[in-house]
Amino acid sequence: MAALSARSTNSGRNGEPASVGDDASAVEKKATSKRAGLSLKARALNFLSRREYSRLELGRRLAPHADSAEEVEALLDALVEQKWLSDERFAHSVVNRRASRVGTRVILQELRQHGVDVHQTEIIKEELMATELERAKQVWSKKFSAPPDDPRSYAKQYRFMASRGFSGRILQQILGDWEDDLA
């Protein structure tokens, strides 16, 4: 009887020894603590290995794991110096990812949100403005199969394209030409 009571106190679920459950929780804790124990630089490189980040965005992601703001700034300076981090590369990454679907205004707003330098955004703006009409025509043709035939469809198409960040001037060039053809 004493053996039975000793066995029941040392057993876990389904009659397994308690040490098996303890080992599993110890492995979980070790994995969690190892993840929590990553250095700040390891975290930064982990983020940067997945995609480009702006300096501001990466700093925000690293801040909760740092002891001080100076530590984050020093690391960001080192990453920029070693060319692991570049706002210019980030800006071009955003342009490459978004330019085929949205207009210049949306892209520039996203770059400003991520803290990209004003000089860099002006360069990007010039590049995007040169191709905005062509990009707007491609977006329009993917969504709409026919030019607007009445004021309601014209307004619908105009709103759609404006919500994508294309300028009114570009939209008048695209939709206005077809409106003239209908008359």
UniProtKB/TrEMBL annotation:
Region (Disordered): 1-33
Lineage: superkingdom: Bacteria
UniProt feature, compositional bias: Polar residues: 1-13
InterPro entries assigned to the protein according to its UniProt record, in alphabetical order: RecX_HTH_2nd, RecX_HTH_3rd, Regulatory_RecX, WH-like_DNA-bd_sf
UniProt cross-references to NCBIfam families, sorted A to Z: PRK00117.2-5
PANTHER family, per database record: REGULATORY PROTEIN RECX FAMILY PROTEIN
Record-stated family: Belongs to the RecX family.
Protein name per Swiss-Prot or TrEMBL: Regulatory protein RecX
Organism: Alcaligenes ammonioxydans
